[in-house]
Amino acid sequence: MKKFIRQLIEKAGYTVFKTAYAPKQMDVILDIRRLVPLSSVQVIFDVGANVGETVLWFRGAFPHAHIVAFEPVKATFNELERRVGHLPNVKLLNVALGEQPKVEVMHLQRYSGHNSLNPALNQPSPTGQSEEVQVETVQNIAKKLAFPRIDFFKIDTEGYELPVLTGATDYLPKTTFIYAEIDFEINGRHTNFFALHEFLGRHGFAFFGLYDLHHYENGRLNYANALFINPARLRAPVGGAATA
User: Fold this and answer.
1) What is the pLDDT of residues 121-159, one digit of tens each?
2) How many degrees, rounded to 5, is the angle at CA 13 between CA 211 and CA 32?
């Protein structure tokens, strides 16, 4: 029966793997589970949470982790709060993250996922709307929440990843995984992969793999999500309960 079902699925154009034998760099959560015990992922920072799709994803993958989600635009934050604010161990913060605390004007784009403090993208849009947003640093927030470390650090800020990471340098030695949207173009809308690789390499991180690849029509790679790992943290014993 199993063979028959597999044949039907393959005829429909799909391939089925047992989880244990699934190819690497197909599912980032599966790869993380291969590297560390599920229980070791206790603190997740979701930077650029938008309306909560990734919060729901993390809640399902790591049911016991503390998730801190950041969304600076008020209307988007309100929708984020409506959708995931009731979930246990989820803290929502209506702030942006950067290299230092300040107030910035963010020009609101038609699609909320395109809002960014990246100067190349933070330009007046057809909506004609803008708002002041509070910018904080990762290390200040983590210290206020009394988190000793960050186990999984996801960043999707449309090209503003490096300022976010610059404001997190105190915590990078205590961070295990960094998952960021990257670009392979010099002037793309996302952070350049090679610039991010160089920055994180100086802080002891190693590139692990690419996920959710997007290609141009001619097949050339455009952008993707990149996973970086901290080998020193992978060798470290799991210790100290997270607090919030």
Assistant:
1) 899 988 889 999 999 999 999 999 999 999 999 999 999
2) 25
The Cβ of residue 63 has, within 10 Å, a number of other Cβ atoms equal to 10
Nearest to 157 by CA among 75, 55, 48: 48
User: What 3-state class would DSSP assign to 120?
Assistant: coil
Q: What burial letters (b/e) apply to 202-230, b meaning 16+ CB within 10 Å?
A: eeebeebebbeeeeeeeeeeebbbbbbbb
Q: Which tokens in the block code for residue 5?
A: 């079902």
Q: pLDDT tens across 226-240, in order?
A: 999 999 998 765 545
What is the residue type of 116? S
Q: Across the chain, where does the E strand assignment appear?
A: 43-47, 66-70, 90-93, 96-97, 102-107, 130-136, 150-155, 175-183, 191-192, 206-215, 221-229
